[in-house]
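The aim of this short unit is practical: by the end, you should be able to scan a pair of folded records and say something sensible about each. We start with the first protein, listed as its amino acid sequence and then its structure tokens.
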Amino acid sequence: MSSRERILGRVRRALADVPGDDTPYEEAVVRDYLREHGGRTVDETVDLLAGNLADYRALVHRCAAGELPSLIAGLLSARGARTVLVPPGLDQGWLAAAAAERVPDRPEADPHELDRVDSVVTACAVAIAETGTIVLDGGPGQGRRRITLVPDHHICVVRVPDQVVSSVPQALSRLDPARPSTWISGPSATSDIELDRVEGVHGPRTMEVVLVSGR
């Protein structure tokens, strides 16, 4: 018997005495909580996102759609990146001006290979203003979770205002629960017992978020 079968067996035994006409889970839990704290305009919501991202020590940039290729090229150049990891489905125009060698995301690539990549550029699924959180769900232009955890430099592009929401409940309503999601609030960081902050332990040491407007 596999671990999966054992777990499902325990679930079935735990539910054995539940009446067939019991209230469905979706209706049993009251969800009348606030879906947004206060009223904000679209611009105020984007400003809140930018401020909270900066509080988490992410580097925030803003540009119009036409400026995005040159901005990304400048960020990679300033970083001294010679290679950039490109997930499937990423808009190739974003890297049109970049001099760094493009490295495709290969399923067989091991962590050591990914660690040799200087930077990774991705899109996102949604960005949450109230928490300063970027959510990836493995969709086009985002790639697998590990490509945003191993390389030391992550550039994430957020389309504003389309991909920006105020709150976590609003973000959840946009996400497919069947897809794997990664929630990122700033660069990876932890603190030891003396509260000395160390960055880059569980993910990229440097995270840059580009808020791009227009199409």
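Turning to the second protein, read its sequence before its tokens, just as you did above.
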Amino acid sequence: MQFTSIVFILFFAVFFGLYWFVFRKNLKLQNLLLLIASFVFYGYWDWRFLALLIGSSAAAYFLGQKIGESEGKNKKIFLNLGLILAIGTLFYFKYFNFFIDSFAELFNIQNTLTLTIILPLGISFYTFRIISYFLDIKNKKLKPETDIVTFFNYIAFFPSMTSGPIDRGGLLLPQLKKERVFTVETGSDAARQILYGAFKKLVVANSITPITQNIFRNYEDLSGSTVAFGAILFLFEIYADFSGYSDMAIGFARLLGFNITKNFAFPLFAQNIAEFWRKWHISLTSWLTEYVFTPLVIQFRDYEKKGLIAAIILNFILIGAWHGPKYTFVLFGLLHGLYYIPLILTNKLNKKKKFTKPIPTFQELGNVLLTMVIVCFAFILFTAPTLTDAVGMYGRVFSLSFFSVPQFIKLKILALIGILLLIDWLNKDQEHGLEISRYNPWIRRGVYVFLIFMIMYFGVFGNGNFIYEQF
């Protein structure tokens, strides 16, 4: 059930009416309705995996109680058991075949253990919620949730179920336990955010997808400039697709009275790689910063800059591996980690750059363009099906054909990207890209009409799948 589908619109309309007009005065019934809706939303994809979701949630609920009430050795036993179950489940569905195949290939033996495994939707996202819940209880940042409906809602919350954001228990659980209030102002702003997310997905991302797919599937027959152009287009495609999903997820959550984690903060205007990752997939990077990077920095603190470099590289290798069982993802993460080394050596890692004027200076524009170039360069690894394909794509980029005129340049696509960049730039200091309540009402209405027209006239409705659903 995709956010952009008629089925979801009907589903949400019925749910919204029941949620606010029938069950509003009874928090327990409202939460129960929310949980049922989340299970229906998830089960619409494949009802068989509801058992896995419910089982994982039940195990996490029980073990969270045990971690909270135990001390010393017992606490550690229950914590380790919870982590093993959560990580083990994720490993089985996402990485088992990869490691078996790699082991067989490494030792040149016949592989008879490869299984036909379907990756459950959203498993990477809800597994990280479970892990953070355990660790927050262990670190006394969170008390175990005693209400099972509240806890199950935290794991299965449907607006952010399939592609995040990865919310922590400390953010979402308290909101589930208190009365929600709907206001016209919040509802209007949430609708604006949903509208902009739909524009990014249906108009920008879906218009670019056929071009990038054509380029990357046929890179051997194309010029280096065309492959490079494809990498640039893919950056805009994945940004529009993923941030579009996040905008809609946050907007739908706000319509239900919830504030969930912001996932993008206009990363295309980042002036260095550290700033890019502070603004890109924020919920994942902040999760790994707290639970992986910070402990590694403490562990490696005696090694000063070398230790910091090692911690960042290990952290980014994990970011790459989180995306899936492919060497290209691991190298994608490694390359981003290596990008940090100049910033660390020059003590510029934590220096934040802000634009000083409405129009960027040449230096600021140069910083942005350089950041985009190195990000696009790494995204070739991200999009390549295999290492062989990645090497082949890089080979085309570094060939003399790089200096030819690229193919597949379409004025329509460039115009759509220009509109996206303009809207983002004008609102780069706001909470989201269409937070335009500060403007004259006629200007706002004009923007709404324009975006709706663009969706109806240029929207590509055949591709409702979001890129990050596969992770």
